[in-house]
Amino acid sequence: MAETKTQQVAEVVIPTKWDILIGRLTGLSKSFYLALGLFILMAIAGVGAGLHAMYIGYHHAYNVTREVPWGILISTYVFFVVTSTGLCLVSSIGHVFGVKDFMPIAKRSVFLSIVTIVAGFTVIFFEIENPFRMAIYNVISPNLTSNIWWMGTLYGAYLFFMILEFIFLQLDKHKVATYAGFMGVISGIAAHSNLGAVFGMLHGREFWYGPYMPIYFIASAIMSGCATILFFTYLAHRVNSERIDSAVSRALEVTTKVGILAICIIMFFTAWKMITGFVGTEGKTEAFMTLLAGKYALNFWFLEIGMGMIAPLVMYILSKGKNLKMIFAGSALMIFGIFFMRYDLVVVGQIVPVYYELGVNEYETLLSYSPSIHEILVVLGGIGIVGTVFLLGEKIFNAHKVEEHEYETATSALKVLEPIKTETSK
Amino acid sequence: MIPKKLDLKDSQIESPDLLPKIERRKFLKMGFAVTGLLAGGKILSLLSIANKSFAFSKEQYPYKPHYSMLIYQNRCIDCELCLEACIKTNNVPTYGYRTNILHRKVSMAVDQQVEFIPVLCNQCNRPPCVTGCPTKATYKDSKNGIVMMNYKKCIGCKTCMTACPYNARYYNEEIRSVDKCDFCYTNRLSKGLTTTACSEACPAKVRIFGDLSNPGSELYQMIHQVEKTVWVIRPESGAAPNVFYTRG
């Protein structure tokens, strides 16, 4: 008798959140699990390689040297955090600054900006020799003249605000979420320009030195952000087997337009960087020559310029913001090209030996660097983390859907920023 | 007017051997004057640069003692005794070095065609490594101006290595920190010794170590001479180095 009562009660119990979560992650297509499995394997391999390198000593595992101390792990970190900042900046047009067209991409972008920066932090964790000391001495012994310190600290704040924003978005508290997002934008810009300044303020390295780097970093973040939003939004709809509705389609169209503008800005920047590269010391000029017609020419012309800028620009224009397959393909090429853009920026900046102008036998030629297996695996690990969390996120957070009413709440949150609207409403 | 005929009988063969001594002296004097003018100009130009780039001129020895080193580049014979002494004194591992000797081939030179250039941390007055370090693991000693390391604070981000205009830093796996020359402060100066291990070991008196804030010191006397050309490596980096070079 008692048993039947319990059974009756159990039947009417509403499924818990946990049950819903399990439900969302089970019974999915084979290809989903296959992709998820592959990304998990990549993440495990990367973390494994990083831990192994830490155990045997980075000196033995990585190909960075005394002369070229920063390698592919630094450039990959830059790649991920530029992407994260870009996602934050582009998506903030909608959910922070109230441009409705950008609203439907907001939640996913905020989520991905957290994922990409976490991937970046994971990669840098395996690059820095004593990451645990960092946690302590960054706090108790800060050096306020150091761009690295500012960058690390501000990115910490940025991650905090982005997580806060994401939580509030999930809780449907859009007003608070918008403020958190606004703080995220400010700390993101500050952190990211400081990352540019890490390179730009090294006055012993002519390739980087100058005010160009912080400005370039922000501009290229917008370019990365657009590509990543377009790439993942399309991919997400494929993963979720959903049609792209008109609101999302409009969001992708405007993002494509911002993308076109961002590519043009970066092309302009790159052209002038190259031209001014021929003024200065012999070493600096030769470093630029390796990009134009030397060892890094394939990286520069084919990957950076061809795949990273020209192909996506042409594809974005031809797509008219509507041909989503073409936009997706262009974005994929662009993300791939940008990865090498960061690599060239970091590595070529160090290939001129500091004693090059002295004309000594030891440093007659430019230096070289190529990543080791350990380093490549850690990079793949970072990509694996992004892939894994992206796929899980799509299911756990129900495709990051943004409801129509959410547009209104978010828009009203920062009325201060919309004086024209306030006037018309009067 | 009838032109005067050249009398070849009276003419002499033009040869330096037959030039009168007075003519030679005149020529040499002129040569010295030109050379002197150029050399003087060079020294003057260097002095004017000194105001901008040398550590000692603009900031007038902010430290006391203001440790510094003068390197007689032409005296170095590459015997590497300085390197050995440094390794021994400072426990430097085989994969790293705190000081090094660079080789420069001067193919146009008449006699000796290879020049040896000892290099080490320049203990810059405006050190890019110190500016860049996030945790103050590397810092400029407020008393003696030596760029020091606090090993336990080093997170190993290697910004200082990238920032250094002199390739003076390496990552020491054993102590899990970036390591560099500290003018032997930890292992010698702080224990009452007055010079660095490399300077002491050098048989050719290449490395002169001393205190620039003391006008009576040998180092001060040697650097502050108008007739002696003194230079620093990479003055354009703006780091204001404290290692000077000369010949003589």
Record the SSE blueprint.
The complex is a heterodimer of chains A (426) and B (248).
Chain A: H1 2-12, H2 17-25, H3 30-56, H4 58-61, H5 72-95, H6 106-125, H7 131-140, H8 147-170, H9 174-200, H10 212-239, H11 246-276, H12 282-293, H13 297-319, H14 324-348, H15 373-396, H16 404-413, H17 419-425
Helix pairs in contact in A: 3-15, 5-6, 5-9, 5-10, 5-14, 6-8, 6-15, 8-9, 9-10, 9-16, 10-11, 10-14, 11-13, 12-13, 13-14
Chain B: H1 21-53, H2 55-58, E1 67-72, H3 81-90, E2 100-105, E3 114-119, H4 128-132, E4 138-140, E5 147-149, H5 159-163, E6 169-172, E7 177-180, H6 197-201, E8 207-211, H7 218-223, E9 243-246
Parallel strand pairs in B: 1-9
Antiparallel strand pairs in B: 1-8, 2-3, 4-5, 6-7
Would you write up a description of this structure?
The complex is a heterodimer of chains A (426) and B (248). Chain A has 426 residues and is an all-alpha fold. Chain A has one domain: Formate dehydrogenase/DMSO reductase domain (Formate dehydrogenase/DMSO reductase fold), CATH 1.20.1630.10. Chain A has 17 helices and no strands. Chain B has a single domain, classed as Alpha-Beta Plaits.
